[in-house]
């Protein structure tokens, strides 16, 4: 499964339908929605968390959450 | 006719909501707490002309009305309770023009509650630079609202915003979204069950796990029992709501907002590349830490000395000016030094919050959280625990206040519990004098002073104890909180001096008033205990005079002996003797016992107490030191302060929870006596055991 965790720095993807149970509501509210474009801006040292740009909304999430969000690579 | 308008200021974090609040109210604001919880309640007033008073409530920043923290609960509880005295006549939602899409989510939710809502689009001055164009009239029409383009940085657009607030009753209240779209079938059932209710409000009452105790019971009757849906189904519907709202927002913005991405120059990515770099990121963070330490230890020394001297001379002056008597003594020896003991912390706290608020305002703090999260998580802490742990080296009180932005309760609680282990400024004078007494003034390899190394070791010990106990607590605390971590990485901004200033003033005030009351009370109690005593205490003068009659003492020396005798026979002296059996195995005598007890008010009292006990009569370090060096162990003979008892004392001060004010603030932040008492017990037990072991091994 290709997820946000599979992105390389600078690479983009489109968020696919994801299991709504795995992802907290707060993340949806911050713009992490199916159909939105996500770009990996930066990975923290020690490979976690990930710094994302989701349709202009900049946020950092932990790897465990990123692994649950499926994407389609652009 | 005098008009009174209640305004609620809402918005996502990082939209400059507080700057808007500061602009609207000036310094005309009041910070308190919501009853029973530690969420800050910021309110202020401003006058629109003579006839119109506006009361503005700055609600905590939130991304939506789906509450997931105490701060957010406050928002939804207020907006659902028409009977609350702060219930807004009009809501002002502050949005950042660069994050309009996300900011509109909250806006549409509030609008759908039927509250007249104004959209204040902040940072409008950046539109040109970011090549953003916005069709305001069209957006107003689509959102059924009035929009004020403002800039709190440039102070533009506020007159128009005020005019909109004043004429709030002309605002359309039509909702943005038909709530039934969320889940048509379910909402249909709701409508049938509660025909007279606003569906969206009902929906929020059903889905939100917040305290609705203040709501009108009649209005709500039956809702709690209307649980025909499982929790996971409700969650699914909430997610559906978010998606539906975003669809609506995307639709609305498609025609009104244009961002020319090609033109958007990116300061952010360039700064990010350096500040979150795997080497430079840490180097820069470390440099900033050094700067903060420098300010707290070095620069604040001057104002602190000044405060110390001023209060000493104020006490002296009071004693000489007011008519002699018990009351004067209480003021001069109890209350004035007590207040001085509070005020002396102001420089450090002000410096600390100056730095913290600048780091937050600029957006740098989010990068630190990003850098440190993985490291801290190994110990049950969060990236957001870094700030409190750093702040703890000045004083645990502001540090514990700084834990508030950790959303995860378990991570926050662990941070609060372990922060007092970090070496605070009040331990420093104690460490310095003991190290000077018991650690030989030699150099290792001819370069490193052994005394300096010991001091550094004490700092490392403090940090180590904090991190290690966090790791233990993570294992033993059974708190089920949904662990979730998301940090917004805001744009870099220059801090607004006014915002920084207001934060520094507010936090300092909160400390002085909050913790100050307790420090003052304890100082008065200590004074009373040291100034009165049973039996022999009252005949001190005669007894001492007879005892030393043969020695030709100067009146001053005699005075010191009297003071010393009085202290030994005062109530606190009795306490010291009473606890001596408990502290003797650690290598202390009753005098150190008293110093330990009085250190409970504030650790640095240790030196002052010993000064009084040893009747040195001055706080001059050199004299106390030589006097301490001459103390003889009453049981074993030999110097009382030797290597063994010195190390034992150092360890005791490193681990024991001896700070009344910290306990008070932990009580305030955790809203229960359980945790501060837990801290007091466990930390003091650790200190006791380690000191005991050290003394018994080394003696």
From TrEMBL, chain A:
Domain of life of the source: Bacteria
Which keywords annotate this record? Iron
Q: Which residues form the Ferrous iron transporter FeoA-like domain?
A: 2-73
User: GO: which molecular function terms?
Assistant: transition metal ion binding
InterPro entries cross-referenced by the UniProt entry:
Fe-transptr_FeoA-like, FeoA, FeoA_core_dom, Transcriptional_repressor_C
What is this protein's record name? Ferrous iron transport protein A
| Organism, as annotated | Aequorivita viscosa
TrEMBL record, chain B:
Q: In which domain of life is the source organism classified?
A: Bacteria
List the Gene Ontology MF annotations in alphabetical order.
Answer: ferrous iron transmembrane transporter activity; GTP binding; metal ion binding
Q: How does it sit in the membrane?
A: Multi-pass membrane protein
Q: Where does Mg(2+) 1 bind?
A: 22
Transport: present as a keyword of the record?
yes
**So where does Mg(2+) 2 get bound?**
25-26
Q: Any stretches that span the bilayer, and where are they?
A: 279-297, 335-359, 379-401, 413-440, 452-473, 510-530, 636-656, 677-698
This protein's UniProt keywords: Cell membrane, GTP-binding, Ion transport, Iron, Iron transport, Magnesium, Membrane, Metal-binding, Nucleotide-binding, Transmembrane, Transmembrane helix, Transport
Q: Where in the cell is it found?
A: Cell inner membrane; Cell membrane
Positions of GTP binding:
11-18, 36-40, 58-61, 122-125
Q: Which PANTHER family match?
A: FE(2+) TRANSPORTER FEOB, FERROUS IRON TRANSPORT PROTEIN B
Q: What does this protein do?
A: Probable transporter of a GTP-driven Fe(2+) uptake system.
To which protein family does this belong?
Answer: Belongs to the TRAFAC class TrmE-Era-EngA-EngB-Septin-like GTPase superfamily. FeoB GTPase (TC 9.A.8) family.
Stated name of the protein? Ferrous iron transport protein B
| Organism listed in the record | Aequorivita viscosa
